[in-house]
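Sample intake — NAD(P)-binding domain
Collected from: Phytophthora cactorum
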Amino acid sequence: MAKELDGVPIDLLINNAGILEPGSYATATKEHFMRHFEINSVGPFLTTRALHNNLKLAADARGLAIVASVTSILGSIEVNLDGAFGPLKKVYYDNHKLPNGEMYGYRASKSALNMINANLAMELKKDKISMVVLQPGYVKTDLNHGGGAIDPETSIAGMTKVLSTVTLEDTSKFYDFQGPELPW
């Protein structure tokens, strides 16, 4: 991909690949964790690194490039320690209590994605590349068998609005699709 895009400036890169496979305390295996980490954590890192020159071209020409990685609130350690997802009550989870102590590979891989993004934010700020993570909401997708709280269009509209305001000073922030900054 990087070869095909050689010399093409990229203003905005959205890393949005992910898997969610069942994995409880009793059933999660090494393979379960590794599949999640490979796709949900390492994939966005490798994509960002492969397209670094393209992002830098855009930043040099326009003053800023943005990398947004789609994460999950389930990757927030602070929120997951609160069994009721307390901070999210203010956001939009009133009628959707998510399971606690499950989805080990998914949650761990999204936490790793968040940390990778924080590290990249420190390293790439000098290149005028702003790194943010976006929590898309509990979206009706194949990952949750259509059981989410919002439709994809609502999530996309919200994330687009958030991204339209991102500056270099916002690098390393974790945003909800509705705009609020979320806890790591």
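Post-analysis note: The beta strands are 12-15, 65-70, 129-135, 174-176.
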